[in-house]
Amino acid sequence: MSKRSIPNVDWANQLENAIRQFVKEKLELIMREEIKNFLEIEQAGTPNMRNGYYQRNLDTQYGRIEGLLVPRDRNGEFQTQLFAPYQRHTGWLEEAIIRMYQSGMSTREIGKFIERILGSTYSPATISRITDVVKEDIEKWHARPLHQRYSVLYLDGLYVKLRRDTVEKEVIYVVLGVNEEGYREILDFFVGGQESAYVWQEILQQLYQRGVKEVLLGVFDGLPGLEEAFKAVYPKADVQRCVVHKVRNTLSRVRKKDQFEMAEDLKLIYRSPNKEIALEMFQQFQSKWSHKYPSMWGRLNCLLFSLFLALKFLDFSLSHFIGQHAIHISR
Q1: Contact assessment for residue 71 and residue 53, using Cβ atoms and an 8 Å cutoff
Q2: Which CATH number fits domain 145-241: 3.40.30.10, 3.30.420.10, 3.50.50.60, 1.10.3370.10?
Q3: CA-wise closest residue to 103 among 213, 224, 186, 195
Q4: Is the separation of the CB atoms in 39 and 69 below 8 Å?
Q5: Could you read off the pLDDT of 187-230 as tens digits, one per residue?
Q6: With a cut of 50, which residues of the chain have pLDDT below it?
């Protein structure tokens, strides 16, 4: 059992919130440059000018981006090429943003992504200028200083489609850090292939070289070899298996009509404010579901034991900053 553990954390939701905020910021950056060059190059010599913003929502596979600021012009002739006026869902745009901001992208590769995102509407000069601005922002993001010490590093591999015209999926390696003040920030993205402990170790070594010298707790799923890879870079850190992954795996074996209700009952356990309430919720869960799923009760018992262990307050308490703090993305 780890010396350090975190109570009341739905890491999957926190990660999705952080990614949504990151994608929102970068989409707004591209649209600001898009309308700037639309007016300066595509409509050069006309009296048309900017006319503020309007807000809209955009659904992504990480949830809904709310309050996205879309620029507009006085004549009503500008329309962002990132999405159609009444489009409410994108299944690839957020992945294109993530791919551009991963480590190691060349200027040529960034330019190709900008062309793919914006299409063939604009002149080469406009595409080139937008590419230059995005490239500069990417360089600043990767060069930004990281904290020397993080209370938590959360590692997750997300399988996604990275192009509109393919069904193949690649893994996005995402590192979410929680610093000592309680703010969460995405430290970096890495894309490619199938998830492996070897790649995770390389990623952690890169973060170490960038200045992340000390980590108190690593949180991740049960990928074979990942704990050893984490300990190879941060030998003094404690580790904790992510409860959310255990919940997902267990619910996949439950009848669909029961999945939502069981998930809500599990939340009452791992979101409990203290051990006493968690134990009470644990016992209620057991009495409710054990008769309905007797054949998988051993698996449920293992999950519930993991949930209960995850609620123990051990060497240090992170509860003062886990929960209500705002997501913080370093620019």
Answers
A1: yes
A2: 3.30.420.10
A3: 186
A4: no
A5: 988 887 778 999 999 999 999 999 999 999 898 877 889 999 99
A6: 1-9, 164, 312-331
